[in-house]
Design a protein that fits this description.
Alpha-Beta Plaits, two-stranded parallel sheet, alpha/beta, 2 domains, Rossmann fold
Length: about 250
Amino acid sequence: MILYFSGTGNSRYAAELLSEQLNEELLDLGKRIKSGEKSPIFSTGPWVFVSPTYGWQLPHIFEEYLRAVELLGDKRAYFVLTCGSDIGGAGRYLAELCQAKGLIYRGTLEVVMPENYIALFPVPEEQEAEQIIERAVPVLQHGVNWIAQDRDFPQRKVGIVDRIKSGLVNRAFYRFVIKADLFYAKDSCVGCGKCVANCPLNNVKLNNQIPVWGKHCTHCMACICNCPAQAIEYGSRSKNKPRYRCLPYKKQ
């Protein structure tokens, strides 16, 4: 079974490709997180967890959900992490998660996709984004082959910088950076409520048809990048940047 979490579509795209080519069921855990649904999940095949990388680790809300929900059936666990550059030393923490859940860790696949973290980094224009996705497809297809052959993903070499990124930097990232305080809606907001619907943590509410943000944010960028009117900004950091949203995978 393919379980995924995605804010702007990169990990959804990867999960859809894996689901189609492996003929495995697809489940959006973002919807489960939003609704609070925590009923057990059963899989007859290996678990494939697909997620973006936040601060060179699995997003905390995704990890917390996996720790809370009962995973029944097969014990093999593969991880596919999408990222803008690299996944650092995330594999160590995923192996620890598997140990805690009684799963057999089969490795982590690093998949570079278009940068979507508009709060801090430059975001590619449409043509460049398409090229990055094209380069990611063969990587995902290698992943399909390894899973189909019941082989571990190749082990990624991890250095001291990777360990620092996924350790010290990740902790600082969550403590000092991940906040919703800078989000605001411009006058061009039409009050459609899509930001409310897209927030996996129910952190966005409409007040007189204007979105307001609470304190429970994970910086998935779903609200700002999926706004049809491009009416949401993150302070001055998002101004004049393109909004990135990955289109669904087209079945072959």
